[in-house]
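Revision sheet: structure tokens.
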Amino acid sequence: MLGILAAMSLEEKVGQLFTLTNRGTELSERTRRLVVERKVGGIFLDMDSLVDPEQVRTLTDELQQAAIGAGRGIPLFISADYVAGAGCKLQGGAVHFPKNKALGVSGDVNLAYESGRITAEESLAMGVNFNYSPVVDININPDNPVIGTHSFGEDPELVAELACSVISGYQDHGLIATAKHFPGHGDTNVDSHLALPVLSFQSERLENFELAPFRKAISAGVEAVMVGHIAVPAWDSSLRPASLSKEITTGWLRNKLGFPGLIVTDGLSMKGVTARYSLPDACILALEAGADILLATGKTPEEEDAMVEAVIKAVKTGRISIERIEESVTRILEAKQKYGLNREKMESKLLTDRGRYEANPHHEEVSLKLAKKAVTPIHGMKPIFTVDRDHTKEWCLLWDRQTELFRNQLCMDAGFAKEKRLESYKEVVEAMNSCGSAPLLISLTYNKLMNPEVLSEVNRMARERKNVILVHFGSNYDLRHLPDVPALLMYDRAPSLQQAAVDYLMGKELGI
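Predicted:
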């Protein structure tokens, strides 16, 4: 495939640098134009492009057919954020693993590898060949609004060990892995989707702490590193996001850490960038900084065109050298060749691999093993329905609508005097007041940190009642505000975690 480089036009070379976002569940004319006319090198599948494995596979087949039928016939990187298994963004048909924090609590490197292997097999069966995972940020800031349970934990060695196991699981089975978010998003209290976080630490701390998992991931052979929109004044006093900073992207990641692979920007459409730069300017700055792949979401076709044209113009006017462009295109073509993304193999795959996608039940068993190892009882929590299951008929069950699986599984074994579905955890205080003096079993979930005022009021009521227990499918940091509540900490609401919580409450065997 590398022989193609010399024959490629400037427009074709620039196109390979872009991974733009698909819209909708089918191949639209807008996306087809990006692939056929703009010759983009990659397509990102966001939530609105992901329904189930069959739909994703149909979409990716059509995307690849469009790519290999146009111009040089270079297949696409088709990427997704499958950070908790290929099923985490789908409505079934693939495994939704517990998030990294639960995996970190399990501490099991073999299960980490298996989760990577299964994710790779299921992703590739759908035609997704590039995963923006794993998160290798070390989350030590309880107020971090975005990383949280996406991180393996607070210990740099544990984070590095489990991340490398997941990376090996992906890449040993043909799925490109991405360590993110360089140089580390864990000790921040700003969401880069909304504003620009600043890592205000000295260089020694950054080298010894934030960079530790990235250093190990690079040694383990990770193919891609995603650079975050994070300012690091110790390394770049201009406060440019790392994704647009040559001092950080090239100076640290490429040169000092010696990373030879693909450097991917975090989404350039995030406000950590767009609050200060236009998208065309951001694309140019990211390439000047040393990025290979520009990940972006254009609101309109005109905005997508403007990004691509800005880079072409920067080369024609001499702002960016053609050598700089070819350096990145070479890395992209080498990675595509390595992972079988060439016209011959892709045509063969599209012709022969037409069987129906089938979920593997043994994959779910791995997820449940992991979930059971993550179960964490705190504040004196014990299995409560082990001796006399009729005892549950005294209880009131309050459950968040997103823990319906937990509720349904629990009610197969137990009955409750009263139950109420909550649309949000924020309704829990009012619901507790409606249950009289009955003992309460509460099941709550939320993707981010819960409101501490709500939790403090729950804690006050629980302290007075002395008959409240909580199953918490959320951040362990929420439990800072619930010191008087016996709780089962589950970290997130993956289906296997909901099943493991039921097994614990009912006193079923939790050993592996």
